[in-house]
Specification:
There is one protein chain. By secondary structure, the chain is α+β, with helices and mostly antiparallel strands. The protein contains 19 helices and six strands. A four-stranded antiparallel sheet has the order 1-2-6-5, with no helix packed on it. The protein has a two-stranded antiparallel ribbon with strand order 3-4.
Length: about 425
């Protein structure tokens, strides 16, 4: 578990705790106050604070997340209004386990009570004979050992030891990735939650160069020649998938699919798509160089390819595996790879992944998906936006993969509306 950075302040009636987290999903957050103990849990984050006074967990307690500062603001009322909580700036003391806090207070002279710990290992004398006391208290050796283990468990300190990350550790976890390389720390949240899309061994400690190198190595290892040959020679479903025409392509006018004339206004959004657009963040994107702008545009291609593959292979009916499929085929999601400088390397990477990872691994099917991507781009920003809104919906409501909506797809949905 990771101990997040935090700060604490107070007024006459409340304790205010600001917890630094990169992103939260409301249904995964647990906040609780029990006497002088405050607990916060959001895997992989965990925070337990021990105050000098007691808190009350009632309707006056509240919490809100600030997107700008990426911090969770928590407020709990004091049990005794006007009571002054001491040492709120001493983080180590607040993080200490209950027993450790008592020992520290005793050592500092603030308490005369001693914290008694059970000796876990007792040295016996050389002439000790366990048979002498067998059954003397009416218990067998097995029963006595069992009771001893129970007593050990009762006296054991089960509280998790918490340590704030050092500045050196923070600097090692400062990898930038996602849309326009503006995110960091998000992949830590899903590390222990079964993130099967992620192909990087250490995403938070990676660089642009290392991500590209690791992607290629993983693709080379994953490619299975026997699997590929089996799909090429024996899979009777693939011709049907190649012949299928996804509904999003049917919504693009034929004039757009065969000419360069921009009549994209003919593409209309459904009420559901309009609602999804209303839920997008209102952000202004500052992309400060032509190299960065080109990288952002190239990042559209893997998303559209993964989407085209999924809607074609599921016959327009997304499944529980759709997020995994799209994410695995998109190198800027599965490997956070944004090293591409032209269209050709992006196409090569996506095609390699389509022949190494998903259920159907067929060259002709991959080429058909590229045709779909071409027509989506010919449809203009409205056709691309329709596809991106669908991709974002697939990711946003997944228990684990929602993080990719936040760091990649959601921004693309908002940015494409103002892109040229």
């Amino acid at each position: 578990m990771i101990t997040p950075l935090f700060s604490v302040r107070q007024d006459e009636d409340f304790i205010y705790i600001d917890i630094k987290v990169t992103h939260i999903k409301a249904q995964n957050v647990e906040l609780r106050a029990d006497g002088d103990i405050f607990m916060f849990s959001l895997p992989p984050y965990y925070l337990r604070l021990h105050f000098s006074g007691s808190l009350v967990d009632d309707d006056r307690a509240s919490a809100s997340f600030d997107l700008e500062t990426k911090s969770l603001a928590v407020k709990f009322p004091k049990e005794n209004p006007g009571e002054e909580f001491s040492d709120l700036d001493l983080m180590t003391k607040l993080l200490a386990r209950v027993g450790e806090k008592g020992q520290n207070d005793a050592a500092g002279g603030s308490s005369t009570s001693e914290v008694k710990k059970k000796v876990l290992i007792e040295e016996l004398s050389a002439d000790h004979n366990p048979d002498d006391q067998d059954m003397e208290d009416g218990l067998t050796d097995a029963q006595r050992n069992y009771l001893s283990e129970l007593e050990d468990a009762e006296n054991f300190d089960w509280q998790i030891t918490q340590e704030l990350p050092s500045p050196e550790e923070e600097s090692l976890l400062s990898a930038k990735y996602g849309f326009n390389l503006q995110y960091s720390g998000f992949l830590r949240q899903t590390a222990d939650m079964g993130n099967d899309i992620n192909d990087l061994d250490d995403p938070e400690g990676s660089t642009i160069e290392s991500r590209s190198k690791e992607r290629i190595e993983k693709e080379n290892t994953k490619f299975d020649m026997d699997y590929y040959l089996s799909d090429w020679l024996e899979n009777e479903e693939i011709p049907q998938l190649i012949e299928f025409k996804p509904s999003i392509l049917r919504s693009i006018p034929q004039s757009l699919q065969g000419t360069a004339t921009d009549v994209s206004a003919e593409i209309e959004f459904t009420e559901l798509e309009k609602k999804r657009m209303m839920n997008l963040p209102r952000r202004t994107y500052i992309i400060d160089s032509m190299i960065s702008l080109k990288s952002v545009y190239l990042g559209l291609i893997p998303l559209l390819f993964g989407y085209s593959y999924d809607v074609r292979t599921t016959l327009d009916d997304h499944t529980s595996e759709s997020a995994w499929t799209i994410g695995k085929l998109a190198a800027n999601i599965s490997c956070l790879d944004t090293s591409f400088t032209s269209v050709s390397p992006v196409m090569i990477a996506c095609t390699r992944r389509s022949l190494a990872y998903p259920l159907y691994r067929n060259w002709e099917l991959s080429q058909k998906c590229w045709e779909d991507v071409y027509y989506l781009l010919r449809g203009g920003k409205r056709a691309v936006l329709k596809a991106l809104l669908d991709v974002n919906h697939v990711f946003a409501f997944h228990d684990v993969y929602y993080v990719y909506s936040k760091i990649v797809v959601e921004d693309y949905c908002a940015w494409i509306q103002t892109a040229r």
